[in-house]
Amino acid sequence: MLHMxxxxxxQKSANTRRHNHFKGLKVINFRFTSKVLQNExxxxxxxxxxxxxxxxxxxTITDDHFTINLQVNRVTRNSQGNKAxxxxxxxxxxxxxxxxxxxxxLKVNVTTMVAEFFRLPRENLAIVVRVQDSKNRMSLVVPHxxxxxxNALMPYIEVSLRDNSHKRTRRTIGMDCTENTKEVRCCRxxxxxxxxxxxxxxxxxxxxxxxxxxxxxxxxxFLQKYPHTHLVHLAAPQGSGGPCCAPRKxxxxxxxxxxxxxxxxxxxxxxxxxxxxxxx
Length: 280
Prior knowledge:
Elements: E1 4-10, E2 21-22, E3 25-26, E4 28-30, H1 34-37, E5 40-55, E6 65-77, E7 83-96, H2 97-102, E8 104-109, H3 111-119, E9 125-133, E10 138-141, E11 156-162, H4 165-168, E12 187-189, E13 192-194, E14 203-205, E15 208-210, E16 213-215, H5 220-223, H6 227-235, E17 245-258, E18 264-279
Antiparallel strand pairs: 1-11, 2-3, 4-9, 5-8, 5-10, 5-11, 6-7, 6-9, 12-16, 13-15, 14-17, 17-18
């Protein structure tokens, strides 16, 4: 089974370079690390926070519900080398007046767009977003990084990745098993962890991820791969236990969460995924 993990790409900070604007709209640039780009995209979700700025002049809004039009375009270059805006997704979304006043997070599936970018990556994945009230009665905004804005509301992309490392190198990293595997020796088993089931509502993303776990016996024949473990077992120094099945290699995941002061934090948490198991 291929390991699934999550990467979160934040919008790059704004600067004064010309490509930050395209036909009157601000360009949203996302950058992925070279390590992330080595994987295949299973799913990509663009998260956008929209909020009403103010009603247009001489307009009184009494409706409790609104319909907004959302359009996501990818900025690319045509055959002449000029920048072009290519439509990717468009939808109409119904929101309440309160949701527009306090702000609302919207999710847009951009899997195909991100997968194409991973196959032919450039410096950044650049997109433009149009958000309009269907009756043109108010101004709506998607936040962009600046010293004045709340960077916790910046657009970000959640990407579920399919680990591609098995295609680059062939190496023995322990056995992988499933619940139906009749294997008694030390093996890695799949385990999906759902934070919401634990009541961990302070975690924003991911809500669920593949953690995996190790289980099984460590017989003598299996210990030949790990001579130090075998020798310690034979010597049996005081206080040492017998060999046990444990993680040999672990990796990190990216997470978006609230700290104690309710600030939104993006960080990489090590040791969250079991990549391989062995006897130790």
